[in-house]
């Protein structure tokens, strides 16, 4: 399926990436090319095939429900773009 | 002491053990080689002081008789592995000056065994690429050049820094990761050995995530035995990675040199693709002959869904990447570009921080996971993935391992495939099936093409049967007797 400019804008919005106007048409072309190549998957008969969601056939392990780490805000915050008084500072979320 | 850098890991460990030289001497030789090789752009962070401190500590341990399996051996670390207190970027501007406050499980195991860290190695941004050209630090240059040419060649990707550092004697071995071929294709392009172990063999904890159901770490090394020594240290269960397998780690080095007589080797007919250079076809035939001579039985097998592996991969991997990379929002670490509101801050941060190929893959992933397309693309790809894994299951009813070429070409020029994403993706045509099925795969240098560039052969094993790959890899290595090294021009 060919991807048009409107779809590129919508996907960029969903992906939270600001794409400049002059990248919209080239991206539509590139993504359409990649998806056209991917379309060949339609040839494969997958009726009754269980989707493969894990590379190894093992059950998810359970761990003990105990606190094993934490209480280390200095390390957690050490790479933050902005902090005040032991907190992350982020743009206003709620008006 | 410059000849110290030309030693294999195994020979260097023997030299350290019999006190022929100290780790400080061995490490200094490598530090000097790294500093002299900056035109290759393999190391994006050199850590000479840390390396020499670690080397001195190693010498002290050895003097007390407490040396570990890798004690005193200088290694290079792909910059996808978090290293405590040492900048880790995934070669992306969005991580900026990220300094981890923790150590990846794999690197912590290497240091537990006494290894020395020389620095951090270049890669494609977030490991997304097959030529190292998507790195925010610029491409790595392959130490190999075609005969009679000064053209700069790619070392492959994404582990191009790791492969180049090993090929150019800038470390005794390197860590790498492989999501679609990122260990094996660079190994083939640089005349080195690379193994991607079974999914779950090595912990992913502390390794920057790309596509979590496909990502697996492994070593790039100078020899099959060196790769076995490194993989043994890197492997093992880790409660911090829920997909890490809780099983014993075999003594991988003990498999190298074992007889391969009587092993059945499958030759998948679907890997004879159109347009494959005759030289690669010939090398494959040569590999078959070598294994026959070593006593293996050759069996033709069919993996009918092979041609669908790459398209399936280019749904699964971007889908997982778009989810994994959602964490780069400019709030808790890395780059932040302020906008008028929260959403605009996200959008500007991610636009400025991610490179073109990473954005392209996030967009594909977002699209195939979006409402209305999820079943048609993502679920369909997961079903095809099952078909591909089933193909291998069927083949392994009849054979013990498979032999294929590693890559459809030798190293190509930097810039050659830059305009066509699909042409670049085709580099992984022989390697990506293994990631989808979670199997181990190894590339062994097997010969040179007519331009004097290295070519690799790939061995694919049953899940958790890396041991057989090390035996077969050892047999191929012995038969190929590949000793060529790049001529130093840097």
In words, what does this structure look like?
- The complex is a heterodimer of chains A (95) and B (490).
- Chain A is mainly alpha-helical and 95 residues long.
- Chain A has a domain at 5-42.
- Helices cover 35% and strands 4% of the residues of chain A.
- In chain A, strands 1-2 form a two-stranded antiparallel sheet.
- In chain A, strand 1 and strand 2 (87-88) form a beta hairpin.
- In chain A, helix 1 crosses helix 2.
- The radius of gyration of chain A is 22 Å and the shape is flat.
- By secondary structure, chain B is an alpha/beta fold.
- Chain B has helices at residues 9-17, 23-36, 48-63, 105-112, 160-167, 184-190, 224-234, 278-293, 309-324, 342-353, 356-369, 374-398, 421-425, 432-437, 466-480; strands at residues 43-46, 74-78, 116-121, 173-178, 193-196, 216-221, 264-268, 297-301, 401-405, 441-448, 454-461.
- Chain B is globular, with a radius of gyration of 21 Å.
- The relative contact order of chain B is 0.14.
- Chain B is built from 15 helices and eleven strands.
- Chain B has an eight-stranded mixed β-sheet with strand order 4-6-5-10-11-9-7-8, sandwiched between helices. In chain B, strands 1-3-2 form a three-stranded mixed β-sheet, sandwiched between helices.
- Chain B has one domain: Amidase signature (AS) enzymes.
- The longest helix of chain B has 25 residues, at 374-398.
- In chain B, helix 4 (105-112) links the parallel strand 2 (74-78) and strand 3 (116-121).
- Classes of the chains: A mainly alpha (95), B alpha/beta (490).
- At the A-B interface, helix 1 and helix 2 of A face helix 9, helix 10, helix 11, helix 12 and helix 14 of B.
């Amino acid at each position: 399926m060919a991807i048009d400019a409107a779809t590129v804008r919508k996907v960029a919005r969903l992906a939270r990436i600001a794409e400049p106007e002059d990248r919209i048409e080239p991206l539509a072309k590139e993504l359409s090319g990649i998806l056209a190549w991917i379309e060949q998957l339609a040839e494969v008969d997958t009726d009754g095939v269980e989707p493969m969601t894990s590379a190894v056939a093992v059950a998810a392990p359970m761990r003990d429900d105990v606190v094993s780490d934490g209480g280390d805000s200095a390390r957690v915050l050490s790479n933050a773009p902005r902090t005040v008084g032991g907190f992350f500072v982020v743009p206003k979320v709620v008006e | 002491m410059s000849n110290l850098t030309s030693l294999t890991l195994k020979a260097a460990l023997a030299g350290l053990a019999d006190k022929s030289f100290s780790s400080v001497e061995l490490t200094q030789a490598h530090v000097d080689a790294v500093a002299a090789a900056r035109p290759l752009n393999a190391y994006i962070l050199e850590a000479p002081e840390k390396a020499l401190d670690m080397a001195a500590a190693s010498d002290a341990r050895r003097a007390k008789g407490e040396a570990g399996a890798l004690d005193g051996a200088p290694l290079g670390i792909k910059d996808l592995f978090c290293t405590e207190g040492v900048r880790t970027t995934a070669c992306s501007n969005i991580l900026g000056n990220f300094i981890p406050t923790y150590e990846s499980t794999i690197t912590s195991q290497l240091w537990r065994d006494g290894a020395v860290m020389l620095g951090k190695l270049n890669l494609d941004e977030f490991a997304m690429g097959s030529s190292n050209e998507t790195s925010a630090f610029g491409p790595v240059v392959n130490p190999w050049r075609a005969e009679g040419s000064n053209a700069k060649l790619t070392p492959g990707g994404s582990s191009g820094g790791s492969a180049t550092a090993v090929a150019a004697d800038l470390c005794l071995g390197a860590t790498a990761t492989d999501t679609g071929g990122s260990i094996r294709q660079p190994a083939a392009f640089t005349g080195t050995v690379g193994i991607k172990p079974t999914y779950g063999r090595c912990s992913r904890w502390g390794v920057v995530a790309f596509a979590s159901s496909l990502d697996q770490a492994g070593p790039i090394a100078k020899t099959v035995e060196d790769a076995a020594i490194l993989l043994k240290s890197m492997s093992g269960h880790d409660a911090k990675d829920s997909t890490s397998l809780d099983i014993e780690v075999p003594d991988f080095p003990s498999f190298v040199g074992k007889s391969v007589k009587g092993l059945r080797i499958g030759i998948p007919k679907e890997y004879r693709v159109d347009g494959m250079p005759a030289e690669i076809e010939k090398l494959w035939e040569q590999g078959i002959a070598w294994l026959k001579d070593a006593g293996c039985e050759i069996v033709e097998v069919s993996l009918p869904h092979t041609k669908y592996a790459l398209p399936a991969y280019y749904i699964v991997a971007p889908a997982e990447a778009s989810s994994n990379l959602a964490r780069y929002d400019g709030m808790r670490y890395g780059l932040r570009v302020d906008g008028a509101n929260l959403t605009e801050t996200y959008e500007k941060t991610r636009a400025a921080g991610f490179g073109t190929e990473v954005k392209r893959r996030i967009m594909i992933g977002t699209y195939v996971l979006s409402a209305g397309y999820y079943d048609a693309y993502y679920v369909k790809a997961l079903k095809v993935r099952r078909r591909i894994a089933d193909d291998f299951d069927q083949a392994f009813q009849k054979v013990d391992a498979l032999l294929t070429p590693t890559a459809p070409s030798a190293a190509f020029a930097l810039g050659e495939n830059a305009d066509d994403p699909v042409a670049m993706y085709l580099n992984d045509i022989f390697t990506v099936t293994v990631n989808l099925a979670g199997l181990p795969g190894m590339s062994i240098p097997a010969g040179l093409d007519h331009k004097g560039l290295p070519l690799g052969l790939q061995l694919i094993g049953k899940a958790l049967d890396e041991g057989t790959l090390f035996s077969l890899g050892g047999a191929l290595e012995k038969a190929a007797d590949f000793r060529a090294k790049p001529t130093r021009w840097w």
